[in-house]
């Protein structure tokens, strides 16, 4: 590994945010998932949750994946919603779905700097009632146009970039969040060997 | 036309922003252009500029278009860059390209509430040197990940939604911007007949 590459990896790891994640519920189009992964990587999200209860489990992001963004993310796959949410709640204080309901608040009125998980639903059905019931609330991306639908990769990008903006203002990228064993595990996975690793 | 439909159209027209536009330079993938159009419609952009100097002119968004967002946008197509920019400058004070250059400023440090045109380039080559030379500056979408590339539809959505957020804060959606003959022309195109039209 060149020192330039090592430096790049260390810089990216120093910006990773362990208090923001994305959950995909029964999103079936691999292109959408890849685009979501690229957006997550771009804003420093390290882990995402891919839940498939009504469609086949995705096989694409296994260890031999050729998808480039997947290589730099920790992808948790679940086929059981309870197990998935149990594990999300271990690390995140709040889980919000994107659901067009009367109690949904605007993305721009949502504090995205807390420990938060954002759930995006299936391309056609959106977030299911079951998952919605397990979450803490809903948010919407405001729209003032004739067409009331944004592609999931667009909706996710707009949401995580608003989180990025809020976090930037609050200095979330100024100091390294991932530390110790978690840092060493990741940097080992990314090809950096540690002389003083745990 | 039902009164509900008429009311919807009037509401959307009342939010249309005549001081923000998107310019696509040699973007070739129709899916990307469609996604850009949906994002533009969603934030209230009325007109966009599609410039094709190095690829074939797009035929898809003519009067018989089946593309849904295109129906609600005014799409100006050009094959000559000078003519395109001449017409953009008639209505917009500032033209910014997305170009990874040393003088590029962050999207989040850019005032998107002025009369502004945002230029997005070809999927592979980005914005050309020719177009860059004709613009007033560059902006970048900050990225802190390993993969340094966002799809053009994602980049455009993040940019126009940041404009939406800034405009929302400044009250740009509180009063109707499109008035008089421009309003009547559009609402006629959208199927509303005016008893007192000009």
UniProtKB/TrEMBL annotation, chains A, B:
InterPro entries: Alpha/beta_knot_MTases (IPR029028), SpoU_MeTrfase (IPR001537), TrmH (IPR033671), tRNA_m1G_MTases_N (IPR029026)
Keyword Cell inner membrane among record annotations: no
SUPFAM superfamilies per UniProt: alpha/beta knot
Keyword Lyase found: no
Reactions mediated catalytically: guanosine(18) in tRNA + S-adenosyl-L-methionine = 2'-O-methylguanosine(18) in tRNA + S-adenosyl-L-homocysteine + H(+)
Gene Ontology biological process terms in this record: tRNA guanine ribose methylation
Family: Belongs to the class IV-like SAM-binding methyltransferase superfamily. RNA methyltransferase TrmH family.
Database matches in PANTHER family: RRNA METHYLASE-LIKE, TRNA_RRNA METHYLTRANSFERASE SPOU TYPE DOMAIN-CONTAINING PROTEIN
Protein name: tRNA (guanosine(18)-2'-O)-methyltransferase
Organism: Flavisolibacter tropicus
């Amino acid at each position: 590994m060149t020192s330039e590459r090592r430096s790049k990896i260390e810089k990216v790891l120093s910006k990773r945010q362990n208090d923001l994640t994305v959950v995909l519920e029964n999103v079936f189009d691999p292109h959408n998932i890849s685009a979501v992964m690229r957006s997550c990587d771009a804003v420093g999200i390290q882990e995402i949750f891919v839940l498939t209860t009504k469609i086949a489990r995705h096989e694409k992001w296994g260890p031999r994946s050729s998808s480039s963004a997947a290589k730099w993310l920790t992808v948790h796959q679940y086929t059981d919603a309870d197990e998935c949410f149990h594990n999300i709640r271990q690390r995140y204080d709040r889980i919000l779905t994107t659901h067009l309901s009367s109690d949904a608040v605007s993305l721009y009125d949502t504090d995205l700097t807390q420990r938060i998980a954002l759930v995006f639903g299936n391309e056609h059905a959106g977030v299911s009632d079951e998952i919605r019931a397990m979450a803490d609330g809903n948010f919407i991306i405001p729209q003032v146009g004739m067409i009331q639908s944004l592609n999931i990769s667009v909706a996710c990008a707009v949401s995580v970039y608003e989180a990025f903006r809020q976090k930037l203002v609050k200095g979330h990228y100024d100091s390294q969040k991932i530390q110790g064993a978690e840092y060493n595990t990741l940097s080992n996975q990314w090809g950096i060997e540690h002389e003083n690793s745990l």
